[in-house]
From TrEMBL:
Keywords: Signal. Residues 1-24 form the signal peptide. PROSITE patterns: SLH. This is DUF3747 domain-containing protein. Residues 206-270, 275-338, 345-411 form the SLH domain. The keyword Cell wall biogenesis/degradation does not apply. InterPro entries: Cell_Envelope_Struct_Comp (IPR051465), DUF3747 (IPR022222), SLH_dom (IPR001119).
């Protein structure tokens, strides 16, 4: 009986291994990815005993009941893995090897081609994608910006972000370090922009870089200008901008209102405190409540039919366009101009907005100084339901403000 059962289990295991081995080349078609809040994850160079070596540890903050880690210092940023001090089940997620994390690029799983490794080089600790075949190039995914013997934060390079593996609509626990570019584009074997449609604004080939994690980012110059103007800022604790972090609805409101304050002649006085709860799920004491209330009262934002605003929910690219359109109309109105947003350039023909609720809106904002543009400024996809990332949010808001200001100057002339 036991022998028969053992044979059956062995046969089943062999079948499963063979099945998954056969599926490996088609991994890109088997799995998709689910976008996540970047601040809920951290990549850590974790010491391996007393060897002086480090390995990759990825920690996820699943519940806010207790912090899973704390950070201190900069260049490098030291990490205290607090999850080691309590039963973190249901609170924190921990991935320590290739079973828990892998690389994904351009929609293709690279777990069978690359392994993740912490490499020490020139006084720094680099997170590298090391190829199984020597003929393939290595990939630098992030670095610590310094060397340390303990737990150390790895800052992901521009273009890289965290995501979760998705199978047939179900989000799995496996963590991706993902990049929208293909492997060939990342390694320089293929052009990054094969599409003839170019960004509406020329890219500074040699921008002044204030944040190490925006080097090489297509929106680097826009980010620098946006930070200089003052409607968005970096993170002082580690001097990063975190360009690939998704924006929440309340963060978008704050950014847009700060941007409107820079419009010449604007006299925008947002109260420090909200007079009442602006939405059912926004307490008057919340840090963003007064801004949300002011934006609502001035028709810049609106809530959901159920009476909620969902302030901490990730804002989509389409939702951001709706807010930027209303903000642009408001910006023109306070200048005494007609709030209509006239077309400034030919709108881009997006392949994925037809039938979407924001179809007309995205088309309008594309024609309005290119506020709406293709995902990562390449191809013809707008990706309306994809989370709005900080880099594009800074660029799109800057374009909207510049367009409003240009119209004001033209009216004066």
């Amino acid at each position: 009986m036991k022998s028969s059962l053992k044979l059956k289990l062995t046969a089943l295991a062999t079948t499963l291994v063979a099945s998954f081995g056969a599926m490996a080349p088609a991994a890109a078609s088997l799995f998709d990815q689910t976008e996540v809040r970047q601040d809920d994850f951290i990549a850590v160079a974790s010491p391996v005993g007393q060897t002086g070596n480090h390995q990759l540890l990825i920690v996820e903050q699943i519940s806010n009941s207790r912090d899973c880690w704390s950070e201190s210092g900069s260049r490098p940023t030291l990490v205290d893995p607090l999850l080691l001090n309590f039963n973190f089940s249901g609170i924190c997620g921990r991935s320590t090897d290739s079973n828990g994390y892998s690389i994904r690029a351009g929609g293709e799983d690279l777990g069978l081609q690359y392994r993740l490794k912490i490499v020490k080089e020139d006084g720094d600790m680099l997170l590298m994608g090391v190829p199984d075949r020597r003929s393939n190039p290595s990939l630098e995914i992030g670095r610590a910006y310094g060397e340390n013997s303990g737990f150390t934060k790895i800052v992901l390079n521009s273009g890289w972000r965290f995501a979760k593996r998705n199978y047939q609509g179900r989000t799995l626990g496996h963590v991706y370090l993902t990049n929208d570019l293909t492997l060939a584009q990342i390694t320089g074997a293929a052009p990054i922009d094969p599409d003839p449609i170019k960004p509406p604004h020329p890219i500074d080939p040699d921008p002044v870089i204030s944040f190490p994690d925006i080097r090489g980012d297509i929106y680097a110059s826009d980010i620098e200008e946006a930070v200089k103007i003052g409607f968005i800022a970096g993170f002082s604790e580690d001097n990063t901008f975190r360009p690939r972090t998704a924006l929440t609805r309340e963060q978008l409101v704050s950014m847009v209102l700060e941007g409107l304050k820079t419009v010449p002649g604007a006299n925008i006085n947002v109260p420090t405190n909200a007079s009442a709860r602006p939405y059912a799920d926004v307490n008057a004491s919340r840090w963003s409540a007064a801004k949300i209330q002011w934006a609502r009262d001035n028709n810049i934002v609106s809530g959901y039919p159920d009476g909620t605003f969902r302030p901490a929910q990730t804002v989509t690219r389409a939702e951001m366009m709706a807010v930027l359109r209303r903000a642009s109309e408001y910006g023109k109105s306070i200048q005494g101009l007609t709030p209509t947003l006239d077309e400034k350039q030919l709108p881009q023909n997006f392949a994925d907005t037809t039938g979407h609720w924001a179809d007309t809106l995205v088309d309008q904002m594309s024609g309005y100084c290119g506020v709406a543009s293709s995902l990562n400024e390449t191809g013809n996809r707008f990706a309306p339901d994809t989370p709005a990332l900080r880099n594009y949010a800074a660029a799109a808001t800057l374009r909207a403000l510049n367009c409003v200001n240009d119209e004001t100057i033209d009216a004066i002339r």
